[in-house]
Amino acid sequence: MAGPDVFGTNPYLDNRPVDGELVTLLRGVTGARNLALEDYRSRAVIAGQVHELMTTDQPEAGPGATVDRVALIGFFEVMNSGVLLVGSEVVIESQSIGVVAGFNDTHMPNHQNICVRVDELHDGASLDLAVGGTVRFRAAGEERRQC
Q1: Who is most buried in 23, 36, 67, 85, counting CB within 10 A?
Q2: What is the mean pLDDT of the chain?
Q3: How far is residue 3's CA from residue 1's CA, in Å, rounded to a whole number?
Q4: What is the pTM of this model?
Q5: To which H or E segment does residue 144 belong?
């Protein structure tokens, strides 16, 4: 099987945003999660699927890493199919949360864990979010293409 750098550091030329809607809010922060991020930098998601969002403040978080400091955000329903990319910005209700650090398959095929790298850990309760809130994943540089 080919490693993640077989096509260079970033083979993705362009990527449309993936939108979602929060369906469940979570609370909880731990320093002992031992969350293994899979060794890939993208995941296709299908409209109607439900996946979990969590954050980490560990700067080394990325494909192949293991993170311990994790805060739970919530579950969201994918509104339009697309591809989530490591490094994409995650925006919830116009609030930039952080960037996708990686993916974890612990609960597959039920749902994918999507880990977002942040500067400071906050869970869903402390971010003042609400069920029904919008979630958007946008690739780096997307805001310039939309202008």
Answers
A1: 67
A2: 90
A3: 7
A4: 0.87
A5: helix 142-145
